[in-house]
Amino acid sequence: MSGVDAAIGAVALRDAALGAVGGPAGREIPGFATLVAGAALAALAVPSLRRVAHRARMAEQRMRAAEQRIRSERIRRYAAARERVRAAAP
Asked: What is the pTM for the complete model shown?
């Protein structure tokens, strides 16, 4: 695909979006094409952003669970060591 083909495609897509979304009055509104393009990009990006956020939450939960397991094991070892010291004391 050449740059000319891409430009023609972009213009055709812009005209289709303006005509389908805003009708004839949409062309007269300043910034309307930018708004429509932003909305289209947001619609494409939202599912990916949701997946990223979900994975981040799951990773955080796994990290918290691992941290809790490590903390519990450390507390258990310290308590056992303390009991051994108390039992060895006269």
From this structure: 0.52
